[in-house]
Design brief:
Layout: E1 2-4, E2 12-13, E3 30-31, E4 33-45, E5 48-56, H1 81-110, E6 129-134, H2 142-148, E7 174-176, E8 190-192, E9 195-197, E10 200-205, E11 216-220, E12 227-228, E13 244-248
Parallel strand pairs: 5-6, 8-12
Antiparallel strand pairs: 1-4, 2-3, 4-5, 6-10, 7-10, 8-9, 11-13
């Protein structure tokens, strides 16, 4: 279970400076750990050892820090627009640092023997690795792109694409399987204010996803998804406000 930001990544601001105690060395307005860790497990499947990681990155739904005597107000509503813009930025800082934590954890697993983490040729062509979870961002968001790895890490069946032609980046690529979703839909895993969003993802290494071995991918919801807004306090009547992305791999 990895929570600390990777080496070289400084703490990020997570709340207003009013929460920093001037009598301590630590800056309590900052954080250097993921709110929810990157949990890794290695399982045996089909005679192979497969490393599976799961994450849940910082939500886009803004939660405002409140403490009696410091800052009052409602947890899910800003006191003013200045507070709103700051906490929107804090959420982005945290989600980005958490995405970097995911990517650094992947690099440590995908590094070839004898190399430094993230350097050299990588082992993704031989090592089955899956990362999945609620990224709270859509496929083209910068945070999602951080996780997928080197340039050209998109599933693309056109001639000459980085997916069709192997190169030195394949050792570290993590293919986002959303490109394999059936075009007839559904193409979203959550509904926010009536608009579908694809914020839950499955990534897999080249060993599991390549032009000669393409998994079947679908989105499954046991019950109709409710539409949610910026205040999650009144829980929706449905069991969950997310659908599941399901992938079936062959080796």
């Amino acid at each position: 279970d990895t929570r600390s930001f990777p080496d070289g990544v400084l703490p990020v601001q997570a709340r207003d400076l009013a929460f920093d105690d001037p009598d301590t060395i630590e800056n309590e307005a900052q954080t250097a750990v993921a709110g929810r860790g990157v949990l890794s497990a290695t399982v045996r499947s089909g005679g192979e050892r497969v490393t599976v990681m799961t994450c849940h990155l910082k939500s886009k739904l803004l939660r405002y820090d409140r403490r009696p005597g410091v800052v009052g107000g409602r947890t899910f509503a800003p006191n003013d627009q200045g507070e709103r813009l700051r906490y929107a930025g804090y959420a982005l800082y945290r989600r980005t640092a958490e995405a970097m934590t995911c990517r650094a954890t992947l690099d440590s697993v995908l590094t070839a023997d004898g190399d430094q983490p993230g350097a050299g040729r990588g082992s993704g062509r031989a090592t089955p690795v899956i990362l999945l979870g609620d990224l709270n961002d859509e496929p083209l968001a910068a945070t999602t792109q951080i996780i997928q790895g080197p340039t050209g890490s998109e599933i693309d069946f056109r001639p000459g694409s980085g997916f069709r032609i192997g190169d030195q980046g394949d050792g570290y690529r993590m293919w986002n399987l959303y490109r394999l979703l059936p075009p007839e839909g559904p193409g979203y895993t959550r509904i926010y204010r009536g608009r579908g969003e694809l914020i839950d993802h499955i990534f897999a290494s080249h060993r599991l996803v390549n032009p000669g071995n393409v998994p079947a991918v679908e989105i499954v919801a046991a019950t109709p998804l409710p539409s949610i807004d910026d205040d999650p306090s009144p829980r929706p009547p449905a069991p969950t406000d997310h659908a599941a992305v399901v992938a079936t791999f062959s080796t």
